[in-house]
Specification:
Layout (H helix, E strand, L loop, with lengths): L1 H15 L1 H4 L7 H7 L2 E3 H16 L2 H5 L2 H9 L15 H19 L5 E3 L13 H21 L3 H5 L4 H14 L5 E4 L9 H5 L6 H4 L15 H5 L5 E4 L1
Parallel strand pairs: 1-2
Antiparallel strand pairs: 3-4
Helix pairs in contact: 1-6, 3-7, 4-10, 6-8
Bound molecules: iron/sulfur cluster (2 copies).
């Protein structure tokens, strides 16, 4: 349980820091930057997440994402599972046109000419005026409503524009088969108790997932809840 306490503490700290780092996850600022040929802070962050996912998969979502942390806090109010399935594709219908538009704007501006990490922030801080706070609370309210109405981490499943970068990296690392962080399972020891399913913050059918080889799911955020809740120690991290 110690590991899960560390994980929860990390995502809670990131959530507390969100007023400072909010704009570094913005889907809007890359548009303004692309129009001026500037790579903004959030584009840098998304690129780093893509590269990191080639080794860690979606571990950022499980261990460091501030919005993920906020949604996990909501599970004490509503612990229902997200439907998932084909609905998970919604985020790709958001991501593809979003990224394509940014690239088109950059081409029209003559390409990216420079990187400005703190672009559109005041001294690198995201929220320093009333208008920014209004946008911030509207965004948090949408995430909150989705988590309460749609189920655990519904925003991650259906909306998040950062997730597809990491799904892409995870798929690549899985195909290329070099050492990277993943799950493995000793299936014989499983008693089908279902505790892992109950604990999974991404509503994955872990019991079924461990029967597959490799043990993976594009929605798995490598949080380790299933590892730490399993009484038979069936699941573990491996490289
Ligand atoms: S399958 Fe396990 S590691 Fe993956 S999201 Fe669910 S609980 Fe976390
Ligand atoms: S918690 Fe462990 S024993 Fe129980 S169903 Fe999951 S993997 Fe099997």
């Amino acid at each position: 349980m110690k590991r899960q306490n560390v994980r929860r503490a990390l995502i809670l700290i990131m959530f507390i820091l969100l007023p400072v780092i909010f704009l570094y996850f913005s889907p809007a600022i890359p548009f303004f930057g692309a129009m001026e040929g500037i790579v903004s802070g959030s584009m840098v962050v998304f690129s780093v997440l893509l590269v990191a996912s080639l080794f860690w998969g979606r571990a950022f979502c499980g261990w460091l994402c501030p919005v993920g942390g906020m949604q996990e806090c909501c599970t004490s109010a509503s612990n229902k599972n997200t439907k998932g399935g084909k609905l998970n594709l919604i985020k790709y219908f958001i991501w593809v046109p979003w990224l394509t538009s940014i690239l088109i704007l950059a081409v029209l501006a003559g390409g990216f000419k420079r990187i400005d990490f703190t672009y559109c922030t005041t001294g690198g801080i995201s929220l320093l005026n009333t208008q920014a706070y209004i946008v911030y609370y509207v965004c948090l309210s949408i995430v909150l409503i989705l988590a309460l109405a749609g189920g655990k981490r519904a925003f991650c499943h259906y909306v998040c524009w950062a997730a597809p970068f990491m799904v892409l990296g995870s798929k690549l690392k899985s195909r290329m088969k070099y050492p990277s962080l993943k799950l493995s399972a000793d299936r014989e020891k499983c008693t089908d108790c279902g505790l892992c399913n109950k604990k999974c913050p991404m509503s994955i059918n872990v019991k079924e997932m461990i029967k597959r080889d490799p043990v993976e799911d594009s929605e798995c955020i490598l949080c380790g809840e299933c590892i730490d809740s399993c009484p038979k120690k069936v699941i573990k991290y491996s490289l």
